[in-house]
UniProtKB/TrEMBL annotation:
Coiled coil: 249-276, 401-428
Residues in AAA domain copies: 543-675
Keywords: Coiled coil, Membrane, Transmembrane, Transmembrane helix
Name of the protein: AAA domain-containing protein
Any one of the GO CC terms: plasma membrane
Keyword DNA damage: no
A single GO molecular function term of this UniProt record: protein tyrosine kinase activity
Segments traversing the membrane: 15-32, 454-476
Amino acid sequence: MAIENFIKVLLRHKIALLIIPMIAVAATYYFLKDSPETYTSRARIATGIIDGSNALMNGKSVPEVQVNQEFGNIIQTMTLKKVLNQVSYQLALHDLSTEKPFRQTGNLLTHLSPGEKRQAIEILTNKYNKREELFLNNPQENKLSRLLASVEYDSESLLSDLLILRVTNSDFIDLTYAAEEPLLSAFVLNTLCKETIAYYTATVSDNNRKSVEFLDSLLQHKQAVLQEKTAYLRDYKVRNGILDVNGQASTLISQIADFETKKQDAQKNISSYRGALRNIDSRFNPNDRKFFESSVANLNQDILVTRGRLTTVNNDYIKSGFDPKYKARADSLQSVLSNQLNKVNDNYSYNPTSSKQELVAQKLNLEVSLELAKNSVSSLGSELSRLNSRLYSLVPYQAAIKRTQDEIDLATTEYTELSKKYEQARMDASFTVKLRQVEAATPGTPKPSKKMMLVVLSGIITFGFCIMVLFVLFFLDDSINDGNELANRTKQPVLGSLNRLKNDKINLTDIWNNTSETGELQYFKSLLSSLRFELDNNLNNKKVIAITSLDGDEGKTFFALNLAYAYTMINKKVLLIDGNFGQPEITETVKTNIYFEDYVLSDNTDKSLLNPESNLTIMGNKGSDLSLLELSSHQLIAEKIKTLRNLFDVILIETPSLNRLNKAKEWIMFADKVVPVFAAAKTIRNTSNGEIDYLGSLNGKLSGWVLNRFDGKKFAVKGRKVKTVKA
């Protein structure tokens, strides 16, 4: 249904849907008929970004992300205002210095005086050489800027006709430019390529140079720091007499371990020697020991001297770190001591009855060994103390040297990494991407004309735009235009519809006496007759019908008059009461002399209301803007209407609209049926929901809605204009 309604909207506006696109087509053709032909030239630049030889020489391949970034940078460089300005200056200098400028029609540059031309050439040449922009604060440069814009040589105009694209997955960039002159398009592209290559090469070279210089200065600084820390460590070792702390510490630790081992061995020997002596002493009785000691007293004195000398040499041997020369002296003294002991053994000094000579010799040897072992333990302990003291003295030197060595290692690492970056930067600077123009632009061929396509597109786009506007209006329009929409909105039945009569002046008598028969009026009468039939069947022998509306200007007066005439056509005696005291339009239209107020308040015979010449009686009101119950009591009014029921077959009452509060509802209390009228193309406001609910609560009194003034079939209206009746 919505699609059908939208199609109806399009059909209603079909003339606009035809005329507006035709106007657009005509306007497009008018503006394009004299437009010049367009010539397109093409140039190509090779970037060298993905050139395999460069990757082989610098030892690395370029990642795809970096490749895309490089191409993006180059393309953006081509569109820089600084680069496009160079092209603009070249175009202007060409037109100023030649008799055949690229653009002749409307070229204000060619209309300058010779002096102005010389000045302009001087300014543009200076700006071109310095790669500067025109300063708008300077009057002369501001004038030149406006002249360039007027000839469309400015950067914005050049950029609008320029297309720059990378050829898919290749090393090339294609440039195309469209202009009305073939030489102009080629000149722009070749100049743009030249200026881009010069600017990009200079920029990249300058950046590489700055990078190399910065890394070189930083590398020299790191080298100086490393040399300073190395010299400090060397001087520190010399100043403290340290060659190799770790080596010295390792030597001392090894010596301490050896001395500890020998000290433990000597202590073990002392224990074993003492045990052996106690064992030997236990075998001698006291008299034997006395005899023995007195016999060898002199020999023991010599042995003690030799022992002392042997102990001294043994201590020196230990302190010297077991120097071999002390070992020889110790062995010599040991030999002397052995000879002295042998003399003791050889001297038969014991009691002849005694047989313990061998034990005496063992005891003497054990005593000598015990004495040597004791002396060794003492010497070894002293030497261990000295070695530990030397080892502890190395600790603070080790910490200072370790800290300085760590600093040297860090500085060495930084220097090495920076040196690699420096070498890489130098190599990258040597193999910088070199832009080169591999295809020069030549004067282009004319592009296929798009005039007819643009003309057709203008019509299609305008037609589509009109349809879109109508659809938006249709979508936003919540007005009611047919009976189904009215029924859906009110949730109440609809009796029928009446079409709109386009004639401004319509005579009711001519309508129903067939004196002004047209297709439109015939359709109206047919719809009204159908509506009367539905209403008559709905009455069920009832007679009083109240005709009302939600708001004013719904056409209920016109409907009430025509419905009354329709009932007279089937020989019904009809009474039409104008119950709208505030706006008595029926009374003013028919100029009746019968008033409802007089009938209610008078005691005259009711049969005088009957009109013997016509089946239609119209009862007006005096326009006092009263409500019905303000006129008289409910009982009296009910009696008067009951009397009218006996006189007429149908009683039609036009009530005020429902938005007039109680005035319509008071009439509805005395009616058998209610017929609300709603004008098509209007919207039911939310404030009217209360009146709609009221109509639905009338317990069967509501016969149904009448949709008035709907846009029905189209008829050619024929006939003369007669007396006006407001519809």
